[in-house]
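Task 17 of the worksheet. Students: predict the tertiary structure of the chain below and write it out as structure tokens. Keep your answer in the requested format; marks are given for formatting as well as content.
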Amino acid sequence: MMKDRPSSKLARGARQESRRFRLLVIVVGFFLVTLTFVVVSKPDAILFGLNGKLPADEAATPIVIQQKVDKAPVVASKKTRSTDALGGDPKVVDDEADVKPKEIRGGEEEVLSEPDPASGMTEPTHKSDLEMLGGGDEEKHRVTLPTVSNYTIHEAAEDTQIAKKQGTSNTQQQGSKPLCDFSNFRANVCEMRGDVRIHPKATSVLYMEPEGSKRDEVWKIKPYPRKGDEFCLSHITELTVKSSKVAAECTKNHDVPAVIFSLTGYTGNLFHDFTDVMVPLFTTASQFNGEVQFLITDMALWWTIKYHTVLEKLSNYPVIDFSKDDQVHCFKHAIVGLHAYMEFTIDSLKAPHGVTMVDFNRFMRGAYSLGKDTAVMLGENPKVKPRLLIIKRHRTRMFLNLDEIIAMAEGLGFEVVIDEANVSSDISGFARLVNSVDVMMGVHGAGLTNCVFLPQNATLIQIVPWGGLDWISRTDFGNPSEMMGLRYKQYAIGIDESSLTEKYPRDHDIFKDPISFHKRGFEFIRHTFMDNQNVKLDCNRFRPILLEALDNLNP
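Model answer:
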């Protein structure tokens, strides 16, 4: 019996080995069957539904992907598939399509800044959107904007055929042109024609590619025209523009193009309201004659209320607030970002449809129903007094001898009007005042932005404070006003006209070589030459400037 035990153990071991072998065969067989099913059946149809689309509430979450742009031509196809949702914005300036976009990452500072119009640099301000609206708690601030008009929207179920047509024509419309252009020094812009799906919840804009297409593009963009200003852009929502074949299903289809832009940035400073938003928005959207849908990231509700007249003139439809929208909006044409060039100007050679600053001036006068198209012609109206508006300042760069200036101007035959333009001014009322005058003058500052309401051939006179600010002043207001069809005069004050003589001796370098102080940075320039300097005009020295303005009214 003792001799039989080894044989029994061997038999049991053989049976166990046999069971292991059968189990291995079953596992390998299951794996081969599964692999065959994956290769042959392509079960993505199961994963994404029978129609190849994801439900809106199951869209993919944002993922940051950076890939090289493939310039290969897109191959036409009759079938399209929806895309996944992504989000972003590159900093690099390169017009080559195979650039890898780089992220712009700014600090996490809580205090926004308002830059002086002379430089684009910033100064701290603690005003929030809530404070601009008059205060209240956070819940009160969450005001729901009007929903998009049903006149511009069709339910997705009613637009199946439209979506199919969009997919068929994708390649024909977009061709091999890259989705985005990052070559401009001031602003990045993406423009797509075809089947474009915008999913605010996922901060994504997806360009639907037909099957067989080799396009593979991912762009990250912050739609605010302050490219390179990392502090400013750190407060701007980053979007991803991506070519794809899989995406969330459309829940809203639109018959008009889309323009996506941000409002946070430096808005709140009158100059930046125009140079960063108004002028670029007009440049980008005026081509659509109101038939365009605005989608705003980083909504500033107080801003849309203040400038509702302009927004309603450019678009026939209520804006869509990115932060409050969970739909998947489908468009045939979409633009992400705004076309922008030099400060407060339009480059008509590059702008869509060649629009100009003359067009912008005409648009602003029309938006606010301003009746005066041209400055008064004194030769034709000898009994009419030309009107002069003096922009008064109360805190910095003030006129110390305003009464003397008024008396001189009235002695030359002007009817003088005094007013102060600030961020809280009633835009419509102040626009009517500016449009009623023939000459407007003021010390360098955001208030001069109101020249957009002046009639054609009116004159803008800019008083430049001491400190080597001539070039900056001309760039901010001189060139733009002339491009609007206005006359421009620039008057740089002398040492004796500056209040700095009360703080520094005459032989100080601040008078002998003011440009050298620019090396100390903008904060020093602002503190010294702007925030702590007032102006006492030498009326005898300034008088010829007003006489030239009068001559402009006697062509």
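Marker's comment: The radius of gyration is 31 Å. The longest strand covers residues 189-199.
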